[in-house]
Amino acid sequence: MKKDKTDHHTSQLSAPCSQLSLRWLPSLYFTKGLSQVVVMTLSVILYKQLGLTNGEITFYVAWLYLPWVIKPFWKPFVDRLQNRRWWILLTQVLLGAGIGGVAFTIQAQLWLQGSLCLFWLLAFASATHNEASDSLYRDCSSGNSVPLYALVRNLSQKAAVLVGQGVLVMLAGNIQVLYRNFIRYSWSLVFYVVAGLFLAFFLYHLYALPRGEEGDSRPVPSSSVWGMVREHIQSFSRQPNVGLILLLLLLFRLPEALLNKVSILFLIDSSRNGGLGLSPQEYGLVMGTVGILALSVGSVLGTKMIRSMLRHSPFRDRQNTSPLWWTACAMTLPDMVYVYLSYALPDSLLLVSLCVLIEQMGYGFGFTLYLHFVNGITENSSGSSHKDNPQITRSLVKALMALSFMLPTMIAGTLQMRVGYRSFFVIVVLLCVVTFVVTSSINRRTKFPY
Question: What is the pTM of this model?
Answer without folding.
Answer: 0.88
